[in-house]
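#lab-general

N.A. 3:47 PM
ok so I finally got the sequence cleaned up, no stray characters, all 181 residues accounted for. can someone with queue access submit it? mine expired

B.Y. 3:52 PM
send it over

N.A. 3:53 PM
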Amino acid sequence: MTDITKLYEEAYLAGNWAKQSELLNAYSSKINFDEIPVCQLHDFCNKGNLSNIKDILNTNPHLYNDYYSFYSSCIYGHLNIAKYLFSLYTNADKTKLFTTYRNAKSDVTGFEHTFRITCGYNQLEVAKWLYTINPSMVDTNEFIKAFDNVCCSGNIEFVKWFYTIISPKNKPNEYGNGYRW
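B.Y. 4:20 PM
back already:
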């Protein structure tokens, strides 16, 4: 692994987005993403390769709670991988996922965001599973946005499922409106 690739990996794992951007701008052609275990992990989560994910995590156990891996396995519909990664989370990791905001200006947690984008990607089975983990998110703005994503998807089964779980205060009234927003 080159020094630049190693620096990029360290910046990624530290959550130092400014350093990552700086390195990408200056050395993008010199960074070998195929050598970085966390990038390999993301690729395997996107493609749904559980055995390779287990191999990466066996040799790099510090990557087990990487949020993007969980997120990408959900949005690409790899329920078995999402469940596996979630099973590795400690209670502290789960608390962080449910309470940490995506950025300083956001009122959306990582979990709520994952649910909304999963709905946008039309992943019904994963959305059902995510909902069972945190049904209290039904009263969040992200949940309403997720419902909007589902309605735009054209998947009638997804819309029906969603409508059955929307809290009464969010169901449309007799005039077709009545949502909190």
